[in-house]
Specification:
This protein has about 500 residues and is α/β, with parallel strands linked by helices. The chain has seven helices and 23 strands. Helix 1 packs parallel to helix 2 and helix 4 packs antiparallel against helix 5.
Length: about 500
């Protein structure tokens, strides 16, 4: 049924229905160009044509059905475009037999229905965009706030760590400075350097200096920098001391001993070592050098005395043992004539101080003795001492000898009067050195019995912490003269 539109209200109802139809069309079917619109177009309300427009219910129903198809597109892309209705003053009457919007597929830009032009524009929905922008701004503000809070928490955490780290650094720096001072204190003085200076110990000190120097780079601290400068000075001094020690070492004669070597071509060299300690001592006493080093390449059995006269001697045992033989040769001197001697004797006819240093070696009497009478040999030059047992494993005479046992040296199982006899001079026992055991003397052979592990007739003994005299029968230390002294180092 046809109905003529005489009022604006009915006309607007038609436009609303037509608007719903058009907005359901996919946005891909339109293109908006502002230039296509008449300059006189109004955006609020257009003058209605006098003749009106005839619209059938079937027309509206058909367009409504068509509008239902692209709903999905509208849901997926609601903000890409919007539709605006602009009414022109152009008076147009749609033919009665023409369905509005029928030619929509023929145009990509506009659709005219009775003077109303529907144009797709590229302009976004302002209100929706404003809402989206508002939500986005709020989200950005929330994100920024959360990020700021996280940064503050991280800063607080780092600050806490920083405080703990600073305290840890202070403790570490204090420890480093203490270790540097301790290391520098180990630096020997020039007057302490001699032919017996341990080059290995100096090398280890140099390694310690280098390690501490490198550690100083861990901290940016004025005290550490100053300590590092001191280390540089200490390293330079150490180099000088090592050079001095090397010079002293070159002023020595060195002899090697190996019981398994060929005796026929033995000359004391490393390739052709002597086969006995006695042979090495003969070569040492004949040397023009006062400083002698004897290096063992094997265990040895001693059957004659190693008497060093006017020499400073270092015996490097390399962990080997020298054992007193069951039989042992007698030797003479002006006071005792022929007598049974110690395994090693240190003396000097000119009363010049001499030294014997034992390193990493064991001297073992094995309970053996020459003679049967435990008594001191007579010194009137008349002899008669053939049956008097040896006075010691090591002995020093003339009141000037110094015997040093290093940390790896042991005097074991003395079978004579003592392990060490001092007639003047000094015995130094470094930390770790030992004098152990002794023969269980059931008979004295007409004598007075053994003196003790250390028999002092003048002179002194210095025992450093960690040194020990243990497992002996009888006296550990036997002092004969009031002038003798025993010094036990407690630190």
């Amino acid at each position: 049924m046809k109905r003529r539109n005489k009022g604006h209200g009915k006309w607007m109802a038609f436009l609303l229905a037509l608007f719903m139809m058009v907005t359901s069309v996919s946005t891909a079917g339109f293109a908006a160009y502002a230039s296509d619109l008449p300059s006189e177009a109004g955006t609020q309300e257009a003058a209605l044509p006098e003749e009106g427009i005839d619209v059938t219910a079937g027309d509206v129903q058909a367009q409504t059905a068509q509008a239902a198809e692209p709903v999905e597109n509208l849901v997926e892309e609601p903000s890409e475009s919007t539709m605006s209705v602009e009414l022109t003053e152009e008076k147009t009457t749609a033919p009665a037999d023409e369905t509005p919007g029928e030619d929509a597929g023929d145009s990509d830009t506009t659709e005219n229905v009775g003077g109303a032009k529907f144009v797709e524009t590229a302009e976004p929905v302002k209100e929706a965009d404003k809402a989206a922008e508002s939500v986005g701004s709020a989200n950005d503000a929330d994100a920024e706030s959360a990020e700021k809070a996280n940064d503050e928490d991280a800063a607080d955490t780092e600050e806490g760590k920083g405080q703990d780290g600073e305290e840890a650094d202070e403790e570490a720096i204090a420890d480093l400075l203490t270790r540097i001072e301790s290391a520098i204190a180990e630096l020997p003085k020039a007057e302490d350097i001699d032919e017996n200076t341990d080059m290995e110990a100096l090398n280890k000190l140099g390694e310690k200096f280098n390690a501490l120097y490198e550690e100083c780079f861990t901290y940016e601290n004025e005290e550490v920098t100053a300590a590092q400068d001191k280390l540089v000075e200490a390293m330079a001094t150490l180099q000088e001391m090592m050079g001095l020690a090397a010079e002293k070492a070159t002023e020595r004669d060195v002899f090697y001993v190996n019981a398994a070597a060929n005796e026929e071509d033995a000359n004391g060299s490393e390739e052709h070592p002597f086969t006995s300690l006695a042979d090495a001592v003969k070569a040492a006493n004949a040397s023009t050098e006062e400083n002698i080093t004897i290096i063992l390449q094997s265990d040895l059995t001693a059957t004659s005395c190693a008497r060093f006269v006017g020499k400073n001697v270092v015996i490097q045992g390399n962990g080997h043992t020298i054992t007193r033989g069951v039989t042992f040769d007698t030797i003479p001197d002006n006071a005792r004539s022929w007598y049974n001697p110690a395994m090693i004797e240190v003396c000097d006819n000119s009363h010049i101080s001499r030294t014997l240093r034992l390193e990493n070696i064991t001297l073992d009497d094995a309970g053996n003795m020459a003679g049967t009478r435990y008594s001191q040999a007579t010194t009137d030059g008349k002899g008669g001492n053939d049956d008097t047992v040896q006075d010691a494993i090591i002995a020093t005479y003339d009141g000037v000898g110094t015997i040093t046992l290093d940390s790896r040296t042991e005097l074991r199982g003395y079978g004579g009067m003592s392990a060490v006899r001092l007639s003047g001079g000094t015995l130094i026992m470094e930390s770790g050195s030992k004098i152990t055991g002794g023969k269980n003397f059931n008979t004295r052979g007409g004598g007075n019995g053994p003196a003790g592990a250390v028999w002092i007739q003048g002179g002194s003994i210095i025992m450093n912490p960690g040194s020990e005299i243990t497992g002996v029968t009888g006296r550990a230390i036997y002092l004969v003269e009031i002038s003798a002294a025993v010094v036990v180092q407690l630190v």
